[in-house]
Amino acid sequence: MSNQKTFGGIPEEFGQLAKAKIVLIPVTYDGTSTYQKGADKGPNAFLDAAENLELYDIETDSEVYKEGIYLADTITEDASPEAVYQTVYNKTKEYIAKNKFVTLFGGEHSISIGAIKAHYEHYDNLTIVQIDAHADLRKSYQGSPYNHACALYDASQNADNLIQIGIRSMDKSEKTVMDYDKVFFAHEMLLNEDWMEDAIDLMTDDVYITFDLDALDPSIFPGTGTPEPGGLMWYETLEFIQKIMKERNVVGFDLVELCPIEGTKVSEFLAAKLYYKMLSYKFAANDEIIDDDDEEEDNSNKIAKFKSNE
Ligand SMILES: [Mn+2]
């Protein structure tokens, strides 16, 4: 399927592959989700919402689209979970080889398996940061290692470093795979006002972020297949992403599991805004937003739910 439009309706000159620093690959696969279906409709809802974004970011005083965002053809492969994995892996590799900053939008979380692998094969000592309500560490589920419940199993075994953030749902069997020193459970984050710095301290220089949108609290992001209570709020999410972008070299990311709800655009608009914020932080990270850390933390304490109330 060929995308005629540019991301967010940006001018054609900033949407061409040759000049773009950023590539966005939409992936519509929703073959293995188990509760509410509809993540296949995520990419189109996200792209529609993005057309209504303001392209100037107040916080970073930047217009990140001028770095160039190439909207790649949507991956609509759905023959099997393995075929999806292979296609995503090949496409991601292709754009990494062109020195692009590769981003993907799902689709369910299994679409991340190939994207993560392409990145950890390319970058030595890469950290995978998984922001997610679910551990996703099953070796196989419903007959496939490429099921969304297995999205991070491969990374847990083969990537150099996996850090899990916001986890609040898992199967007991996943305990044997999980590295507890690198997991930030939601109920513990609530009591640890230093969780962001603690997590960043565990990261190597190069970082890939896989962001399952169900990590967010359902009150701000209801549009997902398995909405788990007790998730991340908007400003603490932005604070954490901004800190990673400033303190580490983020080499790519994916956002997955948007499952649009008919009659409301809250979730897809949040997803579009989050995507654009992540790019703004990434490409403004080394200039405009270097500021006084102490002052920033004072402000964020007032609005971050996962910080101590004292
Ligand atoms: Mn997940």
How would you describe this structure to a colleague?
The structure is a single chain. By secondary structure, the protein is α/β, with parallel strands linked by helices. 31% of the residues lie in helices and 14% in strands. It contains 9 helices and 8 strands. The chain has helices at residues 42-50, 81-97, 112-122, 153-158, 186-189, 195-201, 234-247, 266-284, 293-301; strands at residues 22-26, 69-71, 101-105, 127-131, 161-167, 183-185, 206-212, 249-256. Helix 1 links the parallel strand 1 and strand 2 (69-71). The termini are far apart. Mean pLDDT is 92; it is low at 288-303. Manganese (II) ion (MN) is lined by residues 109, 132, 134, 136, 151, 212.
The amount of helix comes to 25-40%
Biggest β-sheet description: 8 strands, parallel
Q: How many domains, as an integer?
A: 1
CATH topology: Arginase, Chain A
- Please name the fourth-level CATH homologous superfamily: Ureohydrolase domain
CATH class group: Alpha Beta
